[in-house]
Design a protein that fits this description.
Number of strands: 0
Strand content: under 5%
Order of helices and strands: HHHHHHH
Distance between the termini: 68 Å
Number of helices: 7
Shape: elongated
Largest sheet: none
Length: about 170
C-alpha cells in the first residue's frame, strides 16, 4: 500500500484533513515547485502577463531618462502629470518611468533618486515576470507555489513605500 501523494493529501488551498502529518507521509510529498501550473489557457495567460511586465521594462530602458527626475513618460506621447500641473506638487507616481529607465541602465542610485518606490516596483516586476513566464513554459511552479498572503503583503508594502516616498518628496 502506497502513501497518498501531496495532491491527495492537500486540497487547492494547501490545507489537509489531518491535523498532523507523520514523517513518513511528509517524505512522500512532492515539493511545491513541482506542482503543475494548470490548464493550457492559464499557462498562456501566465506567459502573456509575464511578457507584459518585461515589455514595460524594455520600453523604459529604451527611453532617455529625464534629467529633471520626472517627465520621461512624455517621450511616449503622454501628457505632463495633471496632479503636478494643478497642485505644483508631484503625484505618487511622478518619476516612476524615469526611475525604471535608470534601473534598466543599471543606474541604481539615479533610479532611487527619481523615485525609490519605482526602483522597488521595477525590481519586483522583473523577478515576478520571469517567475510566471518560466512557470508557464515548464508547467511547473518555479521555486514555490503562489501564496496569496505573500502577494498581499508585497502589495501593502509597495503601497506604503509609494505613499512614504511621496510624502517625503513633498515635505523634505
Amino acid at each position: 500500500m502506497s502513501l497518498p501523494s501531496c495532491r491527495e493529501q492537500f486540497d487547492d488551498t494547501g490545507t489537509s484533513g489531518a491535523s498532523i502529518l507523520s514523517i513518513e507521509e511528509t517524505t512522500t510529498c512532492q515539493p511545491l515547485a513541482s506542482w503543475p501550473v494548470g490548464r493550457r489557457w492559464f499557462r498562456l495567460f501566465l506567459i502573456a502577463i509575464g511578457s507584459c511586465g518585461l515589455i514595460l521594462l524594455i520600453v523604459a530602458g529604451l527611453l532617455r531618462p529625464s534629467p529633471y527626475g520626472m517627465g520621461t513618460h512624455q517621450q511616449l506621447g503622454l501628457p505632463m502629470c495633471g496632479f503636478l500641473l494643478l497642485t505644483g506638487q508631484p503625484c505618487p507616481s511622478c518619476g516612476m518611468t524615469t526611475s525604471w529607465s535608470h534601473l534598466m541602465r543599471g543606474q541604481l542610485l539615479r533610479s532611487m533618486q527619481a523615485n525609490a518606490a519605482g526602483t522597488w516596483l521595477g525590481c519586483w516586476v522583473f523577478v515576478l515576470s520571469l517567475w510566471v513566464i518560466f512557470s508557464g513554459i515548464r508547467n511547473r511552479w518555479m521555486l514555490a507555489k503562489p501564496n496569496e498572503w505573500f502577494f498581499l503583503a508585497l502589495l501593502i508594502l509597495t503601497l506604503i513605500l509609494i505613499i512614504s516616498v511621496w510624502i517625503f518628496r513633498i515635505y523634505f
